[in-house]
């Protein structure tokens, strides 16, 4: 979503136009979601500059003049709400959380602007690694946990933790993106579930409770479980402590799940432990030592 890959030929129609949103000149369209669109962007006074180092998210139909691009009224309302939530949560900053650099809550053309990251989604990065090791999966998950820890401490729940919202650069730095489903802790959630079922906690799916940090803990546990399924085989004594942590994170009762701070500390400990086993001496080296 935020990576520097080339936009599709269809979206190149926006490249180099004079379309201005706020103080931003738009380039090509990166993607279109349910009611929202993401565009490459640069400061409006950068006309003629080939660099587009920012990403602008706005309601679909705001930029395009094509009537067919305008989504249904309910999709527009949802998109406006998502952008509004992102703006409200923008005050929370952390190295592993996407930064909101500029925003407008205008009812006609709301938008948020973020840095354009040289990164790909968690799933894509995993596929690029020939031998994906358990310590790396734990390291990535811990970075997500650190971003969530800062959100939770500030009174926010992310609400949509999933691999598509986790970007990882070539050096392994993780950024949690998309605050569109963020909610204040203990405030009512949307009556109709809008997130991603595969990573949603039972209470979030049922819509029977207010926003809880434990919802993010559940989703992160599912992400970690999915990551482990892609790792290279390891001995049982290495994987068992990780499995126990995941089991506690995805407990059906939110009161039985650990806090995100506890999860982060446990991940760091497991990361160190598994790293030691991962880089231990080979069988041939052990024989030589014997």
From TrEMBL:
Give all residue intervals belonging to the Protein kinase domain. 24-290
One Gene Ontology MF term: ATP binding
Q: Could you say which EC number(s) this protein's record lists?
A: 2.7.-.-
List the InterPro entries.
Kinase-like_dom_sf, Prot_kinase_dom
Domain of life of the source: Bacteria
Sorted alphabetically, which keywords does the UniProt record give? Answer: ATP-binding, Kinase, Nucleotide-binding, Serine/threonine-protein kinase, Transferase
ATP-binding recorded as keyword:
yes
Supply the Pfam families for this chain. Pkinase
Signal peptide start and end residues: none
Q: Which PANTHER family match?
A: MITOGEN-ACTIVATED PROTEIN KINASE KINASE KINASE 20-RELATED, SERINE_THREONINE-PROTEIN KINASE NEKL-3
Q: What is this protein called?
A: Serine/threonine protein kinase
Q: Read off the lineage from the record.
A: Bacteria, Pseudomonadati, Planctomycetota, Planctomycetia, Pirellulales
């Amino acid at each position: 979503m935020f990576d520097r890959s080339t936009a599709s030929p269809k979206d190149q129609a926006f490249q180099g136009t004079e379309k201005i949103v706020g103080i931003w000149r738009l380039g090509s369209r990166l993607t279109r979601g349910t009611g929202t669109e993401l565009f490459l962007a640069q400061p409006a006074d950068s006309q003629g500059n080939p660099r587009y180092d920012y990403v602008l998210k706005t309601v679909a139909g705001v930029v395009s003049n094509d009537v067919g691009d305008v989504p249904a009224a309910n999709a527009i309302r949802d998109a406006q709400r998502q952008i509004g939530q992102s703006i409200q949560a923008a005050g929370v900053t952390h190295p592993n959380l996407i930064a909101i650099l500029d925003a407008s809550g205008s009812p006609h053309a709301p938008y948020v602007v973020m840095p354009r990251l040289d990164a790909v989604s968690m799933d894509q990065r995993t596929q690029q690694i020939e031998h994906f090791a358990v310590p790396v999966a734990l390291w990535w998950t811990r970075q997500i946990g650190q971003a969530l820890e800062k959100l939770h401490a500030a009174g926010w729940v992310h609400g949509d933790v999933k691999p598509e919202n986790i970007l990882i650069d070539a050096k392994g730095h993780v950024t949690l993106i998309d605050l569109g489903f963020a909610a204040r802790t203990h405030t009512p959630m949307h009556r109709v579930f809008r997130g991603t079922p595969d990573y949603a906690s039972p209470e979030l799916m049922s819509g029977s409770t207010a926003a809880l940090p434990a919802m993010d803990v559940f989703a992160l546990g599912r992400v970690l479980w999915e990551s482990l399924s892609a790792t290279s085989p390891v001995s049982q004594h290495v994987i068992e402590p990780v499995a126990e942590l995941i089991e506690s994170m995805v407990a059906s009762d939110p009161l039985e799940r650990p806090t995100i701070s506890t999860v982060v500390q446990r991940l760091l400990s497991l990361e160190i432990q598994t790293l030691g086993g991962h880089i231990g001496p080979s069988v041939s080296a052990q024989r030589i030592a014997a």
